[in-house]
Specification:
Strand content: 25-35%
Largest sheet: 6 strands, mixed
Strand order of the largest sheet: 4-5-9-8-7-6
Order of helices and strands: EEEHEHEHEEEEHHHHH
Radius of gyration: 20 Å
């Protein structure tokens, strides 16, 4: 789950339309979207957004803003789902506890490397079953270390992030945990497509529900193109602009 402001929709009082969305990892497919007044209102929109969805057995990833105790209880106790929740300064005691864990003694469980967009990134994941985590239904702590190197300048940045999950050690492999964490941050790739390829942030539509509707249409354009194999969405846009009849193939049911 992730929130996003539509910058081009800002009105004279500098208020922009803000949307909270649930996206399927790896598929760039939006399954639910809700307009909220401000970024802080993502918290109150969480339950209404997910309530209609069937989530039993699904792993929901939460950014730091949505890492709330009520959300964890709702997911596990009412929706029978699991969660991976990023922990930052909004939970200072829990964050401090996670940082103090003896991570040097915890074996590295997963390592991946990816190059693209002018950077080379290595991600490492450690996980440990920890008793007494002060967050509902949390049974494992995660440490994610991301090392990024700017290919052009050679500058290296190192980032450590911490998370908790309701998944027990036997319910997900290290590779699955790493993929879930990576999939959450890949939601930003969807935003990048909307920004750069579909030029969402320069769209000045502000009236009524139009900004939200246009955001939905952009998502509807991205998801089927991705599902049929397009990885370069700029090329996909060029292709379907030149061959609009081919776009019907994206929505035509197959037997």
């Amino acid at each position: 789950m992730n929130g996003r402001s539509l910058r081009g929709s800002r009105t004279h009082d500098h208020t922009a339309v803000h949307l909270l969305a649930a996206v399927l990892h790896g598929e760039k497919t939006l399954v639910a979207q809700r307009q909220v007044d401000t970024k802080s209102n993502e918290i109150t929109a969480f339950r209404p957004l997910l309530a209609p969805l069937e989530l039993a057995g699904i792993v929901v990833t939460l950014d730091a803003l949505l890492t709330q105790t009520d959300h964890a209880r709702f997911l596990v106790e009412e929706k029978r789902a699991h969660y991976i929740a990023v922990v930052k300064g909004s939970h200072p005691s829990l964050q401090a506890m996670l940082k103090r864990l003896p991570w040097r003694d915890v074996p590295l469980l997963d390592k991946t490397r990816e190059a693209g967009r002018g950077r080379d990134e290595i991600r490492r994941l450690k996980a440990a079953t920890v008793g007494g985590l002060t967050f509902p239904h949390a049974v494992q702590a995660l440490q994610i270390v991301r090392r990024r190197r700017d290919v052009r300048t050679g500058q290296v940045t190192l980032e450590r992030a911490y998370a908790v999950t309701s998944l027990q050690a036997g319910q997900a492999t290290p590779a699955q945990l790493a993929a879930a964490v990576r999939g959450h941050w890949q939601i930003e790739a969807l935003h990048h497509i909307r920004d750069t390829t579909l030029r969402e942030d320069v769209c000045r539509v502000r009236t009524g529900n139009a900004p939200r509707a246009l955001a939905t249409f952009r998502n509807l354009a991205i998801a089927p193109a991705h599902l049929v194999g397009w990885t370069n969405h700029a090329q996909a846009v060029d292709h379907y602009r030149s061959h609009p009849d081919h776009a019907l193939d994206l929505i035509t049911p197959t037997s």
